[in-house]
Design a protein that fits this description.
- This is PAS domain S-box-containing protein.
- It holds the Pfam family PAS_9.
- InterPro entries: PAS, PAS-like_dom_sf.
- The structure is a single chain.
- By secondary structure, the chain is α+β, with helices and mostly antiparallel strands.
- The protein has a single domain, classed as PAS domain (Beta-Lactamase, 2-Layer Sandwich).
- The chain has six helices and six strands; from the N terminus they run αββαααβββαβα.
- The chain starts with 7 loop residues before the first helix and ends with a helix.
- About 5% of the residues have low confidence.
Length: about 190
């Protein structure tokens, strides 16, 4: 497990959040420092299985099956190399049991008052089998979480960078997720 001190208010926030959250370090391979119970419910992985590893482990099954994800990977790589304050993109992930899902991944930096990135904050939401009203509810929940995390970080020299970028057409995101999963089901060797 990485040896980084995490402020107790941030730990408490994660433990009590109603949405799936992960926190990663900013150096080297962006190893996970913490995930919450919602993350474990969504992915099937317990914290003890993922802390200290890169979240890309969700991009393939234990037997090597994976999705293309080129556009999402490009966006994530750009974000992780310092381009943009947030990223929000659908990406095909796999649960521990090998079942694919389309994850609407949101990532932001938690920075010091001096502007140095301290952590990578991420939220996950399964849009594969969702309806627009569930995505709208998630957007509201994520917006609320981002509003609540800001004051918790004050006094700990950490700030949330950027804001929630909304999806203009939730129906389109969900429809695309369903097409992506259908293609993956037709070509299980990917």
């Amino acid at each position: 497990m990485p040896d980084i001190e995490i402020a107790p208010p941030l730990i408490n926030f994660f433990e009590n959040s109603s949405i799936a959250l992960a926190l990663a370090e900013v150096k080297e391979d962006h190893h996970l420092l913490m995930v919450n119970d919602r993350f474990s419910e969504l992915t099937g992985y317990g914290a003890e299985e993922v802390v200290g590893k890169n979240c890309r482990l969700l991009q393939a099954t234990s037997d090597g099956r994976q999705a293309n994800n080129l556009e999402a990977k490009t966006k994530l790589r750009q974000f992780l190399t310092g381009q943009g304050t947030t990223v929000r993109t659908p990406i095909v992930n796999f649960r521990k049991d090998g079942r694919p899902f389309v994850n609407l991944l949101f990532m932001s930096r938690l920075t010091t008052s001096g502007g140095a990135t301290r952590y990578i904050f991420a939220s996950q939401f399964d849009i594969s089998r969702s309806s627009p009203h569930l995505l709208d509810q998630y957007d509201q929940d994520l917006g609320g979480a981002l509003s609540r995390i800001r004051p918790l970080l004050e006094g700990h020299n950490v700030m949330l960078e950027g804001t929630l970028s909304t999806i203009a057409n939730s129906t389109n995101a969900i429809a695309q997720a369903k097409v992506t999963l259908a293609e993956l089901d037709r070509n299980p060797s990917h």
